[in-house]
Amino acid sequence: MGLFKRGPKRDGRETPRDPEFSFFSTHEAALFRSQVRQAFAERGLEVTVYSDLVTDSAGRQFGLSNLAAVCHNDDRGARVWGELVRQHAGMVLRTMDGPSALDTLSPAQIRAQLYPRVISGDSLDAQAFAYARSVAPGLYEILALDLPESVMMLTDEALEPLGPLHELRAQALGNLRQLPVEGRETVKDAGGMRFEVVMGDSFYTASRVLALDSLVHQVTGQRLGPDGALVAFPFRHQLAFHVIRDASLIPSLNAMASFAASGFEDTPGAISPYVYWWRDGTLTQLSDKDEGNTEAGGLRIVVGDDFQELLERLVSPSGPDQPDVA
Question: Where does the record place Basic and acidic residues bias (predicted)?
Answer without folding.
Answer: 9-20
